[in-house]
């Protein structure tokens, strides 16, 4: 087709929509499998403790080692994601972590299982930083919060599947079988990712958006971007709390609440179902409300996120202090709904307040921060507090970081108005 041949706008737009939808679909399925693989270990943990004879502090290392490797590798993944085809990082990372998940089921010692968890972290870092930047290049700014929310719907659904599938397979067969099953879907999706569309960087940010930015120049700009750092601080505090809660809550419900001692796998199924419903509804609501709030005012989505965390904190505290089991699960559900409101707005704020050519690295640096000071340390810290006092006391303290995180996001919302024009000028 030569330059003078007219192209029907509707046909071109339809083709772009199909390509964007396919890429979003693949990335969302990958994110679902990501969280499925992460949380199988949480519900399989009591059986792993029995087999290897490890205490709570050692068990927490299974979460901490994974997160440490994941967070340290994420900035490198982001750096590469701003420079090479991102679909290659996605595909290679998914295949690597899926192989490592299957290998977890072959572990015959605690050390071998720790090593497998570390490799999973390397694989996930290959895609985690670049997926939001791909989505931001597929959809315009006014749709990003909603589209990123669809992507992050996979977090509660995948976590729920990890709890449910992991609990069922562990009780019916063994924890080894749970890891074998968890590794299979990623191998298929990793292969499909090789054929995923690769959008141009900054494609939806106007004709003046730069597709390249000198690394040191971008790093200096990011260092002065207070909206980015306030958002990252709030995200970090939230991640600290929910990471520790997700790792230890099933064990708490079995050990200290004595729920279904004859069928402990049922705890994983119930907790997973609550996570799925609350997370799905919360993420969808956050995407819709976040786009609506952002249209009314710059930083409106972050304001929504901050209020959500402020309301979630007392619910988290009540969840472990209410005696009635039904009320306990209800408090857990409400807290999760309010927390999952944030998935789309927080990540949309990050990609919107930095230049298009530096988004993957910014996401990678954000991942480093939220995990280095968040859930990299919370599972082990909660385990240590539980060994010294009780698991009940350790989990109850988790409400404090959520409260502080909400305050930090409200500060980020105030700073966001200044950050977005600078990001557009740099772009």
UniProtKB/TrEMBL annotation:
Stored PROSITE patterns: MFS
Keyword Magnesium: no
GO cellular component, one term: membrane
Listed Gene3D superfamilies: MFS general substrate transporter like domains
Gene Ontology molecular function, alphabetical: transmembrane transporter activity
Bilayer topology term: Multi-pass membrane protein
Residue ranges of the TM segments: 20-41, 61-81, 88-108, 114-135, 147-169, 175-195, 226-249, 269-289, 301-320, 326-344, 393-416
Residues covered by the Major facilitator superfamily (MFS) profile domain: 23-424
InterPro entries according to UniProt: MFS, MFS_dom, MFS_spinster-like, MFS_trans_sf
Keyword Magnesium: no
Keywords: Membrane, Transmembrane, Transmembrane helix, Transport
Subcellular location: Membrane
Major subcellular location class: membrane
Any Pfam family: MFS_1
Name this polypeptide is given: MFS transporter
Organism: Corallococcus interemptor
